[in-house]
Amino acid sequence: MREAVIQTILHVARNFPVIRFDAAMTLAKKHIQRLWFPEPGGGGAIPSRSEHGLNRADFEAAMPEEFWREVVDRVARRSARYAAAGRGLLADGRLLRRTLGMHRVYNSASCT
User: Fold this and answer.
1) Long-range CB contacts (< 8 A, 24+ apart) of 73-80?
2) Fewest CB atoms less than 10 Å from the CB: which of 21, 61, 74, 91?
3) In the chain, how many H helices and how many E strands?
4) Does the global pTM surpass 0.85?
5) Which residues 6+ apart lie within 8 Å of 91 measured at CB?
6) CA 82 to CA 7: how far, in whole Å?
7) Looking at residue 110, what DSSP letter applies?
């Protein structure tokens, strides 16, 4: 599924100068673990999911690479338009810009 989503993003990147990802932070490792595989003893955001919890090492082994970091890097390698312009991927949240390489971010709370 991950590869299918990345291939779709690459296809869109070849055809459009800007791609906006709403709720992109939900695919960041930090949020995937917090929401779906909370660390044992941490409670997790949704208590019923604590039975599926993973410690940090097991989670890292299951998901070693950040989804968005991989997307940003692959778009840059495969789409000359994005690489040359140094822009194009737009997402909600500073985490995605600071650590995962999105070209621009916006604050969804300020969007109408």
Assistant:
1) 73/101, 74/6, 74/10, 75/9, 75/10, 75/13, 78/10, 78/13, 78/14, 79/10, 79/13, 79/14
2) 61
3) 6, 3
4) no
5) 20, 21, 24, 25, 68, 97, 102, 104, 105, 106
6) 16
7) G
User: What are the average pLDDT values for consecutive 10-residue runs of the chain, which has 112 residues?
Assistant: 91 82 84 86 70 90 91 79 62 65 61 41
Tokens for 45? 């955001």
Centroid of chain to Cα 100: 7
The secondary structure of 15-40 as a DSSP string is H-S-EEETTGGGGSHHHHHHHHSPPT
Which contiguous run of DSSP H or E holds residue 69?
helix 67-78
Tokens, residue 99: 């650590």
80: Cβ–Cβ under 8 A, 6 or more apart, which residues?
Answer: none
Residue 67's identity, in one-letter code, is F
